[in-house]
User: Which sequence fits this backbone?
């Protein structure tokens, strides 16, 4: 069509066939829904972290293992990474002009967000529900003294042999 023919076309006629505005509506709504969901979840998370400041490891694990806390943390992680993927997709679509590069970057971002979200949820599962190992401190492993038959048994922990307090074998000399 020549230049004179284009001047007589209406705005609607010029944009017809260039795509539908309907395809971005769901993306826009999901971005708004995740943003609104992140407000109370983030406030809860900040308040909870401040409330648990100074808590020991066992207390923190118990807190993360409670069903409500675990559920809220999973929602926070899921909403955060989904919202990030949606937002980065918009930025990539707006500023990357090569179609092949655009698709590759969007797929990479979505995969990275999925992997990071799954890693965070697995870390939560491990922290919240894994059996905690027995607490071992410096005084819990002691050398074994003479047996009832008179011979000396070996040490339970070889690092104790390096401790000068246990050299000499006399329990009375231990400091």
Assistant:
């Amino acid at each position: 069509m020549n230049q004179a023919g284009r001047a007589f076309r209406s705005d609607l006629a010029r944009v017809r066939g260039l795509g539908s505005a309907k395809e971005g509506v769901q993306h826009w709504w999901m971005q708004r829904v995740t943003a609104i969901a992140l407000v109370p979840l983030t406030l809860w998370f900040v308040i909870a972290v401040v409330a648990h400041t100074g808590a020991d490891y066992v207390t923190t694990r118990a807190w993360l293992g409670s069903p409500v806390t675990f559920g809220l943390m999973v929602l926070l992680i899921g909403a955060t990474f989904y919202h990030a993927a949606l937002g980065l997709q918009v930025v990539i679509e707006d500023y990357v002009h090569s179609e092949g590069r655009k698709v590759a970057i969007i797929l990479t971002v979505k995969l990275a967000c999925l992997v990071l979200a799954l890693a965070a949820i697995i870390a939560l599962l491990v922290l919240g529900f894994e059996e905690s190992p027995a607490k071992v401190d410096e005084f819990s492993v002691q050398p074994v003294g003479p047996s009832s038959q008179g011979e000396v048994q070996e040490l339970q922990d070889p690092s104790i042999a390096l401790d000068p307090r246990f050299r000499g074998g006399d329990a009375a000399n231990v400091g």
Remarks:
- The chain has two domains: 24-129, 139-167.
